[in-house]
Amino acid sequence: MVKFLQLNLNHCRAAQDLLSQTVFEEEIDIAVLSEPYKSKAEGVWQQSADGGAAIWSCGQSPGHLSQRASRPGYARAKVQATTIYSCYLAPSLHIDAFRDILQEIARDARGRSPVLIAGDNAWSTAWGSSKTTQRGTILLDALATLDVCLLNDGARCTYSKAGRESIIDLTFASPELCRTSHWKVTDLLTYSDHAAIITQTTHSQQGPSLRQSAYKVHTLNADTLLSSMDGNVITGDANTCADILAARIKAACDAAMASSTRGNGRRPVPWWNHEISVARSECLSVSRRSCQRSRGRPTQALFETCYKEKKKALKIAIKTSKSRCFQELCDAADQEPFGSAYKLVMGKLYRPPTPTSQEQLGAIISTLFPSQPPLVLPNIAASEAIFIGARSTRYER
């Protein structure tokens, strides 16, 4: 099972700050983002060539995402068996460039299955918009060549600003994902004009599990471990012996150590506190919902003002807590150089993973070892014959 969160951050710092806590609380595995504020230090971050779209594997190891690619307008990555495309095509993009990028996405996705294509795209009545624009027609024509289905049900808008609502955040998926997935527009407070969309798929994935079993080494009982492994006689061929030995080692570890679970690396942000949690709850449950219910009524302006004040208070609370947390880390670093501050900084250092896609490996090899014309060695025997002939002619003269 993989849980995706799709969101347009609208280049908002507060929205990206809230995203870090949201993926922890909602147990998100992959975040498919548009217009990010900046790249995240935690996990694996794959961003498009123009920076408008990104795929964030929240806290995962570098090997969790494979076959990664960055192109203008979209980023691609593969998690387990599913290939993900995060797309953002800006409204200012020329219509011809819009068509070219969508056709390139369709060509790249053709032959890959299952796929999930998500992003901020265009208007069309096919997904509940009030009208179909030229971009919506181009999008439908491009994706018609792929075996994908639209997950949007058109019941709720995905974008809301100043009383205007629309459905422009779209999610397309292969039929095998559609049959086993749950898609919904959430009420989460995002600090963006766009709503957060969560897609949870139960499609059977190939590859390693998101959660791996582990043990708490400090709970090791050496006597129990040795007694569990003592007197084991294994017979059979090599494969049978290896399977039996692995099973017995696991049984011995289960008996000698307390089990643990290595999750997907999601951690709460260090600056989150009760004050911010209360401010977010007030902003979401009281102010925003009251503002939505008051539309078209005489009290609309009053509730909108209250909602803006609550949002501002939440933003100030986050900024204040982050500043205080940073100062505490600086003070801790002075007292203990290799303490929590050191570990936090070292954890944020990004080490690019080893590339796995043939396309990326080919580009690296062609850059490091550029092709050259074949080396033609001179014919030494012919050169000697010409030299000897020239000397003979000179002596005869």
From TrEMBL:
Source taxon at top rank: Eukaryota
Domain Endonuclease/exonuclease/phosphatase: 83-198
Gene3D superfamilies (alphabetical): Endonuclease/exonuclease/phosphatase
InterPro entries in alphabetical order: Endo/exonu/phosph_ase_sf, Endo/exonuclease/phosphatase
UniProt cross-references to CDD domains, sorted A to Z: R1-I-EN
Alphabetical list of PANTHER family matching this protein: DOMAIN-CONTAINING PROTEIN, PUTATIVE-RELATED (PTHR33273), ENDONUCLEASE_EXONUCLEASE_PHOSPHATASE DOMAIN-CONTAINING PROTEIN (PTHR33273:SF4)
UniProt-recorded name of the protein: Endonuclease/exonuclease/phosphatase domain-containing protein
Species for this entry: Drosophila kikkawai (Fruit fly)
